[in-house]
Amino acid sequence: MMRIGQASLKDALSLLEQPIPSEFVTRVTPLEFQEYIRLNQVSYRYPNGDKLVIKDLDLEIRKGSRLGIIGESGSGKSTLLDLIMGLICPITGFIEVDGKVVIGNMNGAREVGAELGEDGPPMNIDSWRAHIAHVPQAIFLADSSIVENIAFGIPKDQIDSGRVKRAASQARIADVIEGWRDQYRTRVGERGVRLSGGQRQRIGNVRALYKHADVIVFDEATSALDGETEEAVMDAIEGLSKDLTLVVVAHRLSTLRNCTEIVELGDGGIKRRTSYHQLDISRIN
User: What is the pLDDT of residues 88-147, one digit of tens each?
Assistant: First the structure.
C-alpha cells in the first residue's frame, strides 16, 4: 500500500511546494455592481468537445432579482453558473457588469462599444469574483468549530465574531447555534457529521453572507433535503436583503417559488422565460 501511494504522495507534495499565485493573496477591489449582469451572445464548448453546451445565449440579471434556472440534465445549467461566476471563459460573446466587460471575446465587446476599462478583462474578472459566493449541493465542512467553518479560510485570529453572529442571524440559524452548550465554538465533526442536513446547508448560507457577497449562487443546494427542511432553508434565503442577487439552480420546482423569474434551458439556449405560478406544477418532484 505504501508503494502504491508513493506516486500520489509525491504529486501532492510537489503541489504544496508551488508558490501561491499572486491573485489569491492580493486583495482586489470589488467591481462596481449597481444595476445588472448581462450575458451577450455567449457560447461555450468544453475542451475537446464537439458540441456547444451554451450557444449565443443572451441573459440579463438585474441587481436584487431572484433568478431560477431549470432544465433537463445536460442542458447547461451548471455551465451557465460557471460562466456567470467567471470560472470559465466564453469562446464567443462576453459578460458585462453595469456596462463593463468582465470576461469574454474582447473584439466582440469593442464592436458594440462595451466599456473594457483601463486594466482590461483579467483584472475585472478577479474584481467580479469578489462579489460572488457559491453554495453547492454538498457543503464542505472542516472538522473544526462552527465559527471557523463560517469564516472559512480566514485565520482564526482575524475572524470577526460580530460579523459571524450577524450572518447567522440573517440565515436564521443563530438561535439554534446559541442554544448549544459551546455555541459558536461547537465542533461540527468530520464533514459536519454532528449536524443535520438542514443545519449544514444553513452553515453554507451563513458562510456566503459572512463574505459580504451580493451575488449568491445556489447550485442544487437543497436537493438532498427533505421537503420540510428545504422549505425552512428557502424561507431563510427569502428573508435575506432585497439588495442580494440570487441565482438558483434547482431540480425540484418547489424550490423556485420565491424567484422573480425562471428560465428554462435547452438545446444550448433559453427555451422559455416564465414565473413560478406559470410553471406546470405537475412537473414538481
Answer: 888 888 888 888 888 876 555 444 444 444 444 444 677 788 788 888 877 788 888 888
* Spacing of C-alpha 264 from chain mean position: 19
Query: What is the C-alpha to C-alpha distance for residues 148 and 165, in angstroms, rounded to an integer?
Result: 12
State the Cα–Cα distance between residues 230 and 220, nearest whole angstrom. 11
Strands (E), the chain: 36-44, 54-62, 66-71, 92-97, 100-104, 132-135, 215-219, 245-249, 261-266, 269-274
Q: Locate cell 456547444: which residue?
A: 52
Residue with cell 461566476: 85
Q: How confident is the model over 223-273, as pLDDT tens digits?
A: 656 666 666 667 667 766 677 888 888 777 777 777 888 888 888 788 877
User: ∠ CA 13-14-20 to the nearest 5 degrees?
Assistant: 105
> Exposed, middle or buried: residue 3 (CB in 10 Å: 0-12, 13-18, 19+)?
exposed
pTM of the prediction? 0.73
